[in-house]
Amino acid sequence: MRISSWQEELRGSLQDSEQLLEKLGLQTNKLQTIKASEAFPFKAPESYLKRISKYDPTDPLLRQILPLQEENNQHNDYVVDPVGDLESETVPGLLHKYHGRVLLVTTGACAIHCRYCFRRHFPYADSNPAKQSWQPAMEYIQNDHSISEIILSGGDPLMLADEKLKKLLAELTAISHLKRLRIHSRMPAVLPSRITESFLDLFHNLRLNPVMVLHVNHVNEIDEHVELSLQKLKTAGITLLNQTVLLKGVNDSSQALSDLNEKLFESGVLPYYLHMLDKVQGAAHFAVEEERARNIMNKLRETLPGYLVPRLIREQAGLAYKLPIL
Ligand code: SF4
Q1: What are 231-275's pLDDT values in tens digits?
Q2: I want to staple 286 with a disulfide (CB 3.0 to 4.6 A). Which of 72, 116, 220, 280 is the partner?
Q3: Which residue from 224, 223, 164, 157 is spatially nearest to 194, judged by alpha carbons?
């Protein structure tokens, strides 16, 4: 298989947070960092690291990826599967939570490891149909005519090579009751070189209506390379939405969210959801209290047009929809 430049870039990702701190001119002992667990190690590509400011321990991009001692604190209400993924798994790797939509866990791999990730403890080894075959998932979708939308998630589905995605899309397109293809990905923002011509070709004359839900948390994540990748996706006819996680020390102010949503819109993306943190073990230090979240949202409403204000929601295990907070 031919290796693309994005794959090479990915291979060169930094795997050691101490090296990063050294590069940034920061002292490890002051930041109380830890060596991340083997199950969820430190990982970030150079293209993302370039956007982190030197000498600033509070940089919002750094904070998202830096393993801190606080990850080891135990909190009773922080669990390994906060959104009930495993309960909704119908066949390996296929989650059926909501009416009309199913989510396929296409891979366990990501270009970056976000320390607050709600799937940081997900048993990808047991729930990754890509390793064996998509067949049981395809049969399940084929047999349920109420399903009109397939969501490709992970990990990050854009970690799959284009050839593999092409085969997957061909199988999905052949299921006549599917209407929409939704892709959840952080890669256009984290590794913009992933948006290659051969990737964009996958959407040429695609029968399914494509939507990509990006995951961007801070305006500094959107540099000129990211803007270009978003423009290309839009030109390829893909509807672009964004979901943000409300994170303490990253974006927990109306100004930060206003700047982010303005910039997203300039880049052709509409704000979709603002998620309250999912209570996953190891991420409690990112939590923002609900009252504070409401205040931030109220201020956001005062400054932005309605279409730039995302919906503040919480995902609750077992609920048939995402719970709107404000
Ligand atoms: S890219 Fe998404 S799935 Fe991967 S670690 Fe970050 S939040 Fe989790």
Answers
A1: 999 999 999 999 999 999 999 999 999 999 999 999 999 999 999
A2: 116
A3: 157
Contact 34, 68 (CB under 8 A): yes
Mean of pLDDT over the chain: 95
- Quote the domain boundaries for residue 36: 5-72
The string of pLDDT tens digits covering residues 20-50 is 999 999 987 778 899 998 999 999 999 999 9
> Which residues are CB-neighbours of 316 under 8 A, at least 6 positions away?
83, 322, 323
Cα 153 from Cα 213, distance rounded (Å): 10
Calculate how far, in angstroms, residue 146's C-alpha sits from the geometric centre of ligand 1: 29
Asked if 88 and 95 touch (Cβ cutoff 8 Å), the reply is yes
**156 CA distance to ligand 1 middle (Å):** 7
Same domain, 125 and 187: yes
Number of domains present in the structure of the chain: 2
| CA–centroid distance, residue 143 to ligand 1 (Å) | 30
Asked if residue 154 and residue 291 are part of one domain, the reply reads: yes
